[in-house]
Amino acid sequence: MRAALVTGAASGIGRAIAARLERDGAQVLAVDLEPDPAGPGEPFAADLTTREGNRDAVAAAVERFGRLDTVVPNAGFQHVAPVEEFPEDRWDAMIALLLTSPFLLARAAWPALRESGDGRYIAIASVHGLVASPYKAAYVSAKHGVLGLVKTLALEGGDEGVMAAAVCPGYVRTPLVENQVAAQAEAHGMPEERVLEEVILAPHAVKQLIEPDEVAEVVAFLLGPAGRTFTGSAVTMDQGWSAR
Question: Quick one: DSSP state of residue 226?
Answer without folding.
Answer: G
